[in-house]
Design goal:
Layout (H helix, E strand, L loop, with lengths): L21 H25 L13 H7 L1
Length: about 70
């Protein structure tokens, strides 16, 4: 929108091993999601907004079973 405020925020690169097994991929998925949530909250604060309340994380085993 015109006259809106924006910011560029980034974190350190997260490198996922090419040969990662399912358990390792799940740990990286959680790490990446946490980092994206942190950066989003930082951007909200930097633009004068309160960070959104995040829902609790899904249990990945339960989520896979529900599919």
């Amino acid at each position: 929108m015109p006259f809106s405020r924006g910011v560029f925020i980034w974190g350190e690169p997260i490198h996922v091993p090419r040969d990662a097994d399912a358990a390792t991929l799940d740990r990286y998925r959680i790490r990446i999601e946490d980092e994206l949530n942190r950066i989003t909250a930082e951007a909200d604060r930097a633009t004068g907004h309160a960070p959104l309340e995040l829902p609790p994380p899904l249990d990945t085993e339960q989520a896979a079973a529900d599919r």
